[in-house]
Automatic annotation (TrEMBL):
SUPFAM superfamilies: Immunoglobulin. GO terms for molecular function: ATP binding; kinase activity. Keywords: ATP-binding, Disulfide bond, Immunoglobulin domain, Kinase, Nucleotide-binding, Repeat, Signal, Transferase. The keyword Transferase applies. One of its GO terms (cellular component) is plasma membrane. It comes from Amazona aestiva. The lineage of its organism: Eukaryota, Metazoa, Chordata, Craniata, Vertebrata. Residues 1-78 form the Ig-like domain. Belongs to the protein kinase superfamily. CAMK Ser/Thr protein kinase family. It comes from the Eukaryota. This is Myosin light chain kinase, smooth muscle-like protein.
């Protein structure tokens, strides 16, 4: 088990300011003790996973949405025993608003 993993997937800018939603395997990530969403002043949104375990692997998507449209960036996280691997998928989607 790892103490924590910080996935800073994307820098987001937009007007009006976009609403950010994180998904794991297509389901919204609920913020709490295990998942923490961080937003820096420079527009960087991160998902921190505390106590990373093998069961935390999967596809993580950061979605930014505002009146101008929706943009998604997805990465696949693989945790194998004592080895943590993060693979970027060629998955970025943009839809007009």
């Amino acid at each position: 088990m790892y103490s924590s993993l910080n996935m800073a997937l994307t820098q987001v800018r937009g007007y009006p300011e976009p609403q950010i939603t994180w998904y794991r395997n297509g389901h919204p990530v609920a913020e709490g003790d295990h998942y923490i969403v961080d937003h820096s002043i420079r527009g960087i949104f991160s998902l921190v996973i505390k106590g990373v375990q093998e069961g935390d692997g999967g596809k993580y998507t950061c979605e930014a949405a505002n009146d101008g449209g929706v943009r998604q960036v997805t990465v696949e996280l693989t945790v194998e025993g004592n080895s943590l691997k993060k693979y970027s998928l060629p998955s970025s989607a943009k839809t007009p608003g």
